[in-house]
Design a protein that fits this description.
By secondary structure, the chain is an alpha/beta fold. The protein has 14 helices and twelve strands. The strands form three sheets. The protein has a six-stranded mixed beta sheet with strand order 2-4-1-5-6-7, sandwiched between helices. α7 links the parallel β6 (about 200-205) and β7 (about 230-235). α1 packs parallel to α8 and α4 (about 120-150) runs antiparallel to α5 (about 155-170). The longest helix has about 35 residues, at about 120-150. The protein is flat, with a radius of gyration of 23 Å. Mean pLDDT is about 85; it is low at about 25-35 and about 80-85.
């Protein structure tokens, strides 16, 4: 699963990417520093694995991972090929969700591509370019659907849907803000529209703004805009996060305490991005390895087993399941079994986040 980090030039997105992945992506104070996208795979923070590791003392601990793509800065006219527009749009099309970095701080030493700080204007600049690209896609599909409609009335639903999407796009409303029924969802998914991708806004603030980040006026503007799309906003100081990412665990903990923070903003971003993609983790635990496995929410037990190995899905018999909280409260798997908290689940069982599972199979 890929999550694209986007934003106007010089808003802090490459610095954010560096902090998340510690990959050392090139970062400079001029537009289009990032031409080809940088890619980094990062572990999803999961305290449950630490607890299980203390219980089992395994040889290896393996976290779930998520892939971040640092995409070139965008400018007005990208949908018509301005700047690196065509490359930007093709790179974002390949991602599953968008993480948009918005500048909410003033600093005369860092040039803003539009000459002033206005986070809502910046968001609209990017969103409008995505909307323009989607209008072009919808128009092509609509022309084809209308031609097909002359031969078969079965295309009426598609024509109606495309006209609805087009009308909203032309009014500046992203497709992700619209409600679709199950049949419409299938048609929309097949269109690969940019504005249907889930989005998370990162409000990049200064260290001075940290204490009152949630009520900061510029952050509030971003939240008001995001609420129209049912999107979430995470305020963080990218500069501080870059410092934190270079520290060992003890120093990082001390710095967070000094800043009055329970966890880093980056941990929030990674966790929320995982959730944004509709993902969750089930866990396996034993002396060889404690591991988190990534699955889509709503996945049934056999398909979850297939994430470990296709043979386990093919020969699935049952799943022995205990919730993480129940296991921790019991202190051991033996006690959990004695208390009847280890359940036997079949093929129709829908996996829950944090399930600790042992799959039984025969091939």
């Amino acid at each position: 699963m890929k999550l694209g980090i986007v934003g106007l030039p010089n808003v802090g997105k490459s610095t954010l990417f560096n902090s998340i992945t510690k990959a050392g992506a090139e970062c400079a104070n001029y537009p289009f520093c990032t031409i080809e996208p940088n890619v980094g795979v990062v572990p999803v923070p999961d305290e449950r694995l630490d607890s299980l590791a203390k219980m089992y003392n395994p040889e290896k601990v393996t976290h779930a991972v998520i892939e971040f793509v640092d995409i070139a800065g965008l400018v007005k006219g990208a949908s018509k090929g301005e700047g690196l527009g065509n490359k930007f749009l093709s790179h974002i099309r390949e991602t599953d969700a968008i993480c948009e970095v918005v500048r909410c701080f003033n600093d005369s030493n860092i040039v803003h591509v539009d000459g002033s700080i206005d986070p809502v204007r910046d968001i609209e600049t990017i969103n409008l370019e995505l909307i323009f690209a989607d209008i072009e896609t919808v128009n092509k599909r609509l022309d084809k659907a209308r031609k097909n409609l002359k031969a078969s009335k079965s295309y009426q639903e598609e024509v109606d849907l495309l006209e609805k999407i087009k009308e909203n796009l032309e009014n500046g409303i992203s497709a992700r803000a619209l409600d679709f029924n199950e049949d419409e969802e299938k048609l929309v998914k097949d269109m690969f529209l940019l504005t249907t991708k889930p989005i998370l806004y990162i409000a990049n603030i200064s260290e001075e703004q940290l204490e009152n980040a949630e009520t900061d006026p510029l952050v509030q503007k971003v939240k008001e805009y995001a609420s129209k799309e049912n999107a979430e906003v995470i305020p963080l100081c990218v500069k501080i996060e870059e410092e934190l990412s270079g520290l060992d665990d003890n120093d990082k903990k001390e710095m967070l305490e000094a800043l009055g923070l329970e966890e880093s903003g980056l941990d929030k971003v990674i966790k929320k991005s995982y959730d944004l993609l509709g993902l969750m983790s089930f866990l396996t635990a034993g002396e060889p390895e404690v591991r988190a496995w990534t699955i889509k929410k709503g996945t049934k037990a056999p398909q979850a087993a297939g994430k470990i190995h296709s043979d386990i899905e093919r020969g699935f018999i049952k799943a022995e399941v205990v919730s993480f909280d129940d296991l921790m409260n019991c202190g051991s798997m033996v006690t959990a079994r004695e208390k009847g908290l280890v359940r036997q689940e079949g093929k129709e069982y829908v996996m829950q986040d944090g399930d600790i599972v042992l799959f039984k199979f025969n091939v």
